[in-house]
Every structure is written in C-alpha cells, then in structure tokens.
C-alpha cells in the first residue's frame, strides 16, 4: 500500500493471508492511473478456510445462539466505530474508485451509517419468535433462525453500502458471513474488517477474501455455503445462481438496470433536470438504479433536452479529492473504454449527440474520465436505450401519450427502478403502479429508504434488501405445532 495513504488512514501497509495466496490485487487510482496499493489475494485454501471457520461459528459457536438483543448491541458498537472513522473511509473509497469526495462522504459512507442504525431499529421489533393460534386448535410457534453461512459478493460502485446491506442483516439474524469485495475496492472492505475486529465478534463470524472472479466463483459454489447474496451484472448473476443451485443454496440477486424516467406533460423542465442530474449522474452514472432512459412528451421534447443539456454542461468534472468536483473518473480504464464505445455506438445508431462525447473532458489528460453525455432523437430499439452502459450517458426518448410512455418504460429486459415526474402526485402514482419494476420514485429517483425493500424483477434479479424484507432473506422459518392440554 502507498505508505502515505496507509499512514493517513491508520491501516497496515502489508495485508496478508494465512493460506496459499501467491498473487496480489493491485488497486489503481482512477484519477492518476497509478497503483495506490497491493493486497494479497486469496487462494483456494483461503476460501476453504474461511468457509470452514464460518461453518464452525454457525454449527457450534455462540453467535447464532445469542439473544437478538446481544447481536443488535454488537452492530451498534460497529456503528459507533464506523461513525468515528467516516472521514477515513470516505477518503479511501474516493481514492480507490474515483467517487467525488463530497459524494463519498454523503452517500458512499453516509448511507451505510444510516443503514446500520435502521437495521438495528428493525431488528428490535422483528418477530424472531411468535406464537399463533393454529387452525386445528394447536398453538403454533413460529421461529426465525439464521440461515447459516452467507457468501456476500459485492461490486465496486457503492462498495460499503452494498456490503452493509448484506452484512448487517445477516449478522443480526445470527449468520456468519464470508465477504468477497471487488478487486477495485478491496481497501475499504479491509478497513471495515479492522473495525469488526474492534467489535470483538466470535472467531469465524466474518471473513474478508480479496481476489478476482475465480475467488468469487469458488466461494459461491462452495458446499459449505447456505446462502449467496450477490450484487453485480445480470450475466454474472446467472452464473452465480447456477453455481449455487448445485448445492441448493439459497440465492438473492441484485443485478443490472436500465431505468426509465417518465416525464409527464405537466412537469417543469428545470425541476426535472435538477432531479435527473442527481438520480442519473451521481457517482459518474455508476449506479444500478440510475435513471438512464429519459422518456419525454414529443410535443415538449426540446424543452426537456435543453434543460438537461444545461445541467449536464455545467457539471464540474475533475479530481475526486477536490470538494468542488461533481463528476469524477470512471472506476477503471476498461470501464472508460466501454462507455466510450457506447457513445460512439449511439452516434452510429442515429441518435443525436446533444452534449458530451467520447473525448476526455477539457483540462484532463490523464485518468479514466468521460464527459457527461446526452443523446436525443433516440428510440427504444437502439442499444444505447436497451443495454446498461454504467456511465454518465443519458438517452432521451419521445412518446405520444401516457400509454406509449408506460409501454416504452416496460419494454426492457430490466426492472430494477424508475420514476415519474408530474405536477399531479396522484397521476404519478397511477403511472408508478403500471411500470414493471421492483422500486419506483414519484418526482424523485428511488431514495433507498432503509425501511423499504429494494430489489428488481426480470433481468434485474430477485430477492429484496433493506426493510424488514432485508432481514427475512437471512432467516429460515420453522413452525412448531404444540398440542393444547386436554
């Protein structure tokens, strides 16, 4: 690890594993293109050891057998430690994946902090054990016990948020967790591991395995895993589901999206542009529920295009460590090239390039940057309207009437999120009820409310995170029928 970075964050400069690691994960700065850390990568023996330790913690250790209140107290201790190091965590995430420091503080770290508190509140009222009157006269005791050993595999775009929404409900339920972070964002996961050590969890309850896709594949297909929780692309999700199926392990998948923002004819262009800027371009558009298809009334298309172009053109693109920066680099050179290829494709498909393009932003000659890019004159058959680009690229599609707008929104392989913008809230809710997604916003992007379930339909996956449903995914329900005394 870069010594200055390690000293600043107060974390060790030499990460190692006890198993057979022979390779390293190299973490590259998206701003400079230079390495900032090297971390020992897990090998097959490390995966086996971590799963074995988790298995022992579940099968014979104290963690699953604690009163839920004791597990809640442990997570609250973690939240206190986490809060004290929020600044360090935000700086680390910004350095390793390029999120602007203000976004890293507000969302990359602020959201996980909120989620910890919210899950603890939910756990305090969760029905871990209830007694029901049975239909046949017996009392029925319903218990919700930990599902067991959880493999949690997360991507790089919102690393701490995605870790916490898996790790915390699993811990509260009494599970043990083996976490596989993305190679690009290994450092924040290891900093979290240090915090967990301070909490003093029993041995084997949480392990972190840095590494590439081969490490993740061995983990999700391991016979010692009871539940796989995966966030990533739809293609990878299919492979994960197939690997877990061999062991009949439970699976939840939060996958890709191509979410539509339906703009009704009574909406205000400036209000819409401000909302879309936040819901679509934060984190350089590298958010699974970003609103990337902007579906506008044909009669007012130019008004909305002009307002969007003005907002996008005013974005400050640059060094993620600068508090003035609004749009940082993409996470990797490969991701930058992928987005550039889609921008070129959109022009070949016949869409009109309103602003942006595949050249580096002005004043930047290094780093994995892409200009915020807006297309208009597109239709829903174009690849830029159908495929997840995962960058700061928005596509405007015109519609004839409300039915056509809903049809365009639903004409997608994905179904993760969406929104509607209107001066009439009730009208917006009626539209929301017709769109085939797991989450939706009226006059806002989806807010990731910690008390509301989050997840998708169609190629966006299955299962839910957040809310009470976020705990449901980590428990097994057992019914015990008790004969009444005669």
Could you characterize the architecture of this molecule?
This is aldehyde dehydrogenase (NAD(+)). Belongs to the aldehyde dehydrogenase family. Residues 21-480 form the Aldehyde dehydrogenase domain. The active site is at 254. Keywords: Oxidoreductase. The chain folds into 2 domains: 3-255 and 466-479, Aldehyde Dehydrogenase, Chain A, domain 1, CATH 3.40.605.10; 259-439, 3-Layer(aba) Sandwich (Aldehyde Dehydrogenase, Chain A, domain 2). The model is unreliable at 1-21 (pLDDT under 50). It is of the alpha/beta class. It has a 7-stranded mixed sheet with strand order 12-13-14-11-10-16-17, with helices on both faces. Strands 7-6-5-8-9-19 form a 6-stranded mixed sheet, with helices on both faces. Helices cover 41% and strands 20% of the residues. β6 (176-180), α7 (186-199) and β7 form a beta-alpha-beta unit. The longest helix is centred in the N-terminal third of the chain and has 25 residues, at 101-125. The protein has helices at 3-9, 44-59, 68-84, 86-97, 101-125, 159-173, 186-199, 213-220, 234-245, 269-281, 301-313, 333-349, 383-386, 402-410, 425-434, 467-472; strands at 24-28, 35-40, 129-133, 139-146, 149-153, 176-180, 206-208, 227-231, 250-254, 259-263, 291-297, 352-355, 373-378, 393-399, 414-415, 418-421, 441-442, 457-458, 461-462, 475-482. The termini are far apart. α4 (86-97) packs antiparallel against α7, α5 (101-125) packs parallel to α6 and α10 packs across α11.
């Amino acid at each position: 690890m870069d010594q200055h970075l390690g000293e600043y964050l107060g974390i060790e400069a030499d990460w190692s594993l006890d198993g057979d690691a022979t390779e390293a994960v190299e973490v590259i700065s998206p701003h400079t293109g230079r390495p900032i850390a090297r971390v020992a990568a897990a090998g097959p023996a490390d995966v086996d050891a971590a799963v074995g330790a988790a298995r022992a913690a579940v099968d014979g250790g104290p963690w699953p057998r604690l009163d839920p209140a004791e597990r809640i107290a442990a997570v609250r201790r973690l939240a206190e430690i986490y809060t004290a190091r929020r600044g360090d965590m935000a700086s680390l995430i910004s350095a390793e994946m390029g999120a602007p420091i203000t976004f890293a503080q507000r969302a990359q770290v602020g959201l996980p902090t909120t989620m910890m508190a919210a899950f603890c509140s939910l756990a305090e009222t969760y029905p871990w054990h209830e007694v029901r009157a049975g239909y046949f006269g017996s009392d029925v005791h319903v218990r919700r016990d930990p599902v067991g050993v959880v493999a949690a595999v997360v991507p790089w775009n919102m690393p701490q948020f995605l870790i916490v929404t898996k790790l915390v409900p699993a811990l509260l339920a009494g599970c043990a967790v083996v976490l596989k972070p993305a190679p690009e964002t290994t450092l924040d996961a290891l900093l979290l591991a240090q915090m967990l050590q301070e909490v003093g969890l029993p041995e084997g309850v949480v392990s972190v395995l840095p590494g590439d896709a081969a490490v993740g594949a061995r983990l999700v297909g391991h016979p010692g895993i009871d539940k796989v929780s995966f966030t990533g692309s739809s293609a990878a999700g299919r492979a994960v589901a197939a690997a877990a199926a061999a062991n009949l392990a439970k699976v939840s998948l939060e996958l890709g999206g191509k979410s539509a923002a339906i703009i009704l004819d009574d909406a205000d262009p400036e209000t819409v542009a401000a909302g879309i800027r936040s819901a679509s371009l934060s984190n350089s558009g590298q958010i699974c529920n970003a609103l990337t298809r902007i579906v506008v009334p044909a009669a007012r298309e130019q008004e909305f295009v002009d307002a969007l172009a003005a907002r996008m053109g005013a974005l400050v693109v640059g060094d993620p460590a600068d508090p003035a920066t609004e749009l940082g680099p993409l996470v990797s050179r490969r991701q930058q090239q992928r987005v550039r290829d889609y921008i070129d494709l959109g022009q070949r498909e016949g869409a009109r390039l309103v602003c942006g393009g595949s050249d580096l932003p002005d004043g930047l000659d290094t780093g994995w940057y892409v200009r915020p890019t807006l297309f208009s004159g597109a239709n829903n058959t174009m690849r830029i309207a159908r495929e997840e680009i995962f960058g700061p690229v928005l596509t405007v599609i015109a519609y004839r009437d409300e039915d056509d707008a809903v049809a365009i929104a639903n004409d997608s392989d994905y179904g993760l999120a969406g929104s509607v913008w209107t001066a009439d809230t009730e009208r917006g809710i009626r539209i929301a009820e017709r769109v085939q997604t797991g989450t939706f916003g009226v006059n806002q992007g989806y807010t990731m409310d910690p008390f509301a379930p989050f997840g998708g339909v169609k190629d966006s996956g299955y299962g839910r995170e957040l809310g009470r449903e976020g705990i449901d995914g980590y428990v097994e329900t057992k019914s015990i029928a008790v004969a009444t005394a005669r």
